[in-house]
Write a structure and sequence with these properties.
Molecular chaperone. Has ATPase activity. The structure is a single chain. By secondary structure, this protein is α+β, with helices and mostly antiparallel strands. The chain has 4 domains: 3-231, Heat Shock Protein 90 (2-Layer Sandwich), CATH 3.30.565.10; 238-376, Ribosomal Protein S5, domain 2, CATH 3.30.230.80; 406-485, 3-Layer(aba) Sandwich (Rossmann fold); 498-624, Heat shock protein 90, C-terminal domain (Four Helix Bundle (Hemerythrin (Met), subunit A)), CATH 1.20.120. It contains 19 helices and 23 strands. Strand 10 and strand 11 form a beta hairpin. Helix 2 crosses helix 5, helix 7 crosses helix 8 and helix 8 packs across helix 13 (468-475). The radius of gyration is 36 Å and the shape is elongated.
């Protein structure tokens, strides 16, 4: 028996792969089971063109055997087997794949496809085994052969005894170390969990002898150990069944079995795509937000399968961030895999699937908004904030995708409305989409800045999320209508007594200039208000930064001291204005006091902090004595 060396390149690749390419050791079992499935598929392909072969699916299976005493794990299949040349070519030269060569010779038919294409997954066995022994008898051959290796130092091939066609792989599991527990790969429950996780939808039965206890015959309180062969995989994935066969309960059961969430999904999307890219997908819109959704621990992404074999638990590239709440899976025959099957090549196929999925999700949300409003509002209360973040992110790149899905509470109905619904009922003379920002709807209702807009009968959208104004700044216009804050310096509404207001403003120009000088550095201007009806004073803003945006930005860590350009507006029809005029003419010290009080009053209305609360309380006391 001659010991042969791996090619130099193969030796280096084996060492690198064992130590670094695979991030989870447990996938070795997925790889070996996938190879066994390929071997059975090869018989199926041959039977399609060879009349002497009859493919009876019930005769083909994969068996996993754990022997704790001898520390061996065996994977046995009834597949096509390998000749000596096959063992030499497929296992002696790393990255030369027999499955890939076979695939080129035999086009996949009837939905079958060859999983392994790069010939590397087999060597993941060395991550958990000191010795790997492969005994195989090829279909049509009288002789079996045994391939054996301890890793990068080489391998041997010799004749062996094997009665049936197929392949048996025996792993001599490594001994435990201080840092690594290899016993888990001999544990029945752990093996069952790995197979369920990665290989549940392999097309052929995966069997294992499972231990149990039963009452001894003829006794009541005595039990005996026994073993029973069980099939561990379900074989037929739900996404490959016809939609007409499935009920809402089937989808809900799948949602919970896959641990996508503890809630009940609001909607599911079942996709079977044939075209430029072939894939199946089941996607879910959850009812409630995961507790860690806005934490760094949350991982977005869909489960990704290649022909029923789990490749990635969370494929982030399949979902845009703004749809990161979606749960589910994708299975495709069209994806190219790299040497480890751990990472996908970010090729055109993956991008096409991601684009199609994005379109499907948006379509489902639009349909829910139109036909199941109550359900959509439940969804929106949980994830509307994420849609707004999507509008704001990447400088508004995704606004066209998301703007029709946005909703805000309205001053008219006190319930959620879409931008389209707002536009549809705007009066003809209304120039802008008006909004007001604040901590709550109740607080916004009390803002003096809303008086003129409300008096004109115009609807106001309530922005109570800190992201709302920032998102709207990215949209800028919706159906050719600009957004306008009720605190904006120019509301685009003409006063009924415009000429009279301008005349009074000019008459009191010196008063306003004096007050502006008193508040230098705090406001950019003091002026007569066109918006106030009952309230004596308010703050408005010039420029893009509103007062609410100032508050939000300044609350962020390491953020520069952002300031809105504030304007103090005085209601000339209020009794207070008469006191201001009188003080300007007779008592400048009293005017100074009034100006400070009105400015601080305006700050309090906006929820802004007072620069000197003690001085403010002292000023109040001064006017009381």
């Amino acid at each position: 028996m001659e010991k042969k060396q791996f090619q130099a390149e193969s030796k280096r690749l084996l060492e690198m792969m064992i130590n670094s390419i695979y991030t989870q050791r447990e996938i070795f079992l997925r790889e070996l089971i996938s190879n066994s499935s390929d071997a059975i598929d090869k018989i199926y392909y041959k039977a399609l063109t060879d009349d002497s072969l009859v493919f009876d699916k019930d005769s083909y299976f994969i068996k996993v055997i754990a022997d704790k005493t001898n520390r061996t794990l065996t994977i046995r299949d009834t597949g096509i087997g390998m000749t000596k040349e096959d063992l030499e070519n497929n296992l002696g030269i790393i990255a030369k794949s027999g499955s890939l060569a076979f695939k080129k010779e035999n086009e996949a038919k009837d939905g079958h496809n060859i999983i392994g294409q790069f010939g590397v997954g087999f060597y993941s066995a060395f991550m958990v085994a000191d010795v790997v022994t492969v005994t195989s008898k090829a279909l049509g051959s009288d002789t079996a052969y045994k391939w054996e290796s301890t890793g990068a130092d080489g391998y041997t091939i010799e004749t062996a005894e094997k009665d049936s066609v197929g392949t048996e792989i025996v792993l001599q599991i490594k001994a435990n170390t201080e840092d690594d527990n290899y016993d888990e790969y001999l544990d029945e429950y752990r093996l069952k969990a790995i197979i369920k996780k990665y290989s549940d939808f392999i097309r052929y039965p995966i069997k294992m002898d499972v231990a149990g206890k039963r009452p001894k015959e003829g006794t009541e309180n005595e039990f005996e150990d026994y073993q029973e062969e069980q099939q561990l995989n379900s074989m037929v994935p739900i996404w490959r069944k016809n939609k007409s066969e499935l009920t809402p309960e089937d989808y809900e059961k799948f949602y919970h079995e896959k641990h996508y969430g503890f809630d009940k999904p609001l909607k599911h999307i079942h996709v079977s795509a044939d075209g430029a890219v072939v894939y199946q997908a089941i996607l879910f819109v959850p009812e409630s937000m995961p507790f860690d959704y806005y934490s760094k621990e949350y991982e977005k992404g869909l489960e990704l399968y290649a022909n029923g074999v789990l490749i990635m638990n969370k494929c982030a590239d399949l979902l845009p961030d703004y749809f990161s709440f979606v749960k589910g899976m994708v299975d495709s025959e069209s994806l190219s895999l790299n040497i480890s099957r751990e990472m996908l090549q970010h090729d055109r196929q993956l991008k096409l699937i991601a684009k199609n999925i994005q379109s499907k999700i948006k379509g489902q949300l639009q349909s829910m908004l139109k036909d199941e409003r109550e359900k959509y509002e439940t969804f929106y209360k949980a994830f509307g904030r994420q849609l707004k973040f999507g509008v704001y992110s990447d400088y508004g790149t995704h606004k066209d995708v998301l703007q029709d899905l946005l909703m805000f509470h309205s001053s008219k109905e006190k319930k959620l409305v879409t931008l389209d619904e707002y536009i549809a009922r705007m009066p003809e003379d209304q120039k802008y989409i008006y909004y007001a920002s604040g901590e709550s709807m109740e607080r916004i209702d009390k803002l003096p800045q809303t008086e003129l807009v409300t008096d004109k009968g115009y609807e106001i959208l309530y922005f109570t999320d800190d992201i709302d104004e920032f998102a709207i700044k990215m949209i800028m216009t919706y159906k050719e209508k600009e957004f306008k804050s009720v605190s904006s310096g120019d509301l685009g509404i003409e006063a009924d007594d415009k000429s009279e207001t301008e005349a009074e403003t000019n008459d009191n120009k010196e008063l306003f200039e004096y007050m502006t000088s008193l508040l230098s550095g705090k406001v950019t201007n003091v002026k007569a208000s066109k918006r106030l009806k009952k309230h004596p004073v308010c703050l408005s803003t010039d420029g893009d930064v509103t007062i609410e945006m100032e508050k939000i930005l300044n609350a962020m860590p390491n953020n520069p001291n952002v300031k809105a350009e504030k304007v103090l507006e005085i209601n000339m029809n209020h009794e207070v204005f008469g006191s201001l005029k009188d003080a300007f003419e007779k008592d400048k010290e009293k005017l100074n006091l009034y100006t400070a009080l009105l400015y601080n009053q305006a700050l309090l209305i906006e929820g802004l902090p007072l620069q000197d609360p003690v001085e403010f309380t002292n000023d109040i006391c001064k006017i009381m004595v």
